[in-house]
Amino acid sequence: MTEQASNLSDQEKIEFCQERIGYHFSNVELLRSALTHASGAVNRLASNERLEFLGDSILGFTICEWLFKEHVEYLEGELTQIKSTVVSRRVCARVSLQLELEECLILGKGMQQAHGVPKSLLSDVYEAIIAAIYLDGGFAAAQEFIIRTIGHELQQAVQGHSVGNYKSALQQLSQRENGAAPAYRLLSETGPDHSKMFQIAAEIKNRKFTPAWGRTKKDAEQRAAGNALAELNGEAPPYTD
Question: Is 233 strand, coil or helix?
Answer without folding.
Answer: coil
